[in-house]
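Please produce the structure of this protein holding zinc ion.
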Amino acid sequence: MTAPTWPHPVYDRYNARSLYEEDPVLAETSDTQDTGLPEALRFQSPSPLVDIGANLTHESFARDLPATLQRAREAGVETLILTGTDLAHAEKAAELASEQDGLFATAGLHPHAASEWSAALEAGMRDLQRRPEVVAVGECGLDFNRNFSTPAEQERALEAQLGLAAESGLPVFLHERDAGERLAEILHAWRDDISRAVVHCFTGERRTLHRYRDLDLHIGLTGWLCDERRGHHLRDLLSDIPLERLMVETDCPYLLPRNLPAKLKGRRHEPALLPWIVREIAHWRGNSEAEMATATTTTAQRFFDLEAQATPTRPSKEGY
Ligand SMILES: [Zn+2]
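Below is the modeled complex.
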């Protein structure tokens, strides 16, 4: 099998339909590309943040990636974990991470694309996961909401990737929509073999959260809880997530928070907006924003072992 080119046609088909049914297809251009963010959206975190889920290899960032990274830095979002959702995007994410300080990558196959799993793909992932800038296996998991790949294909690709995580000792970056029970069952069988795992963009109910907590999983929260149509139930669950198991992410360019204090034409989410999400989580969980920022950053540094990865094996790099 030859390696897919980037951008990857299958992945881009998902992008065109949007990973999240309710999100409109992202506009071709965003108003941040020329003028930066509106004043009301220039947030400043009280202490450095880690965005554990940024899809910066998405085509919507192709035109203004350096400016996007600069805005993130100005907002205090100093570390970004770039999500790798298939071989081509994971290679691109690792390449970006190897070029710039503060950037790291994950390498995995998204459940939407699980039908592509093959021995050759597995070998490619294994190679990528050996690179120092690749800090987790994933994004992998189960998505029974869309079933772009069949549930059987999704489970096969997930189990294979849990095997890779067991082999390398890397943590796992998991995606789950409408599949909490099954994911918990599978993880239960693997739990002793994998080091750590985070369910990114948690959107589930209390029962699922407790199952994940019993498995000692980490939870990643996005701006989903800012969505009055489908996310407000998360506000009541926040106190059930131990602070030392909680991390934050934008999942950009998807999931622009719906309650931002100013409109953003183009609807493209970006890492510089993460402080708003942290503020919301802190408010509804009853913490201060500073406390939430410090705790989630400490947790992310431990979870992805960032200190170890940031030093000797990586050459010194330009910029960010
Ligand atoms: Zn996801």
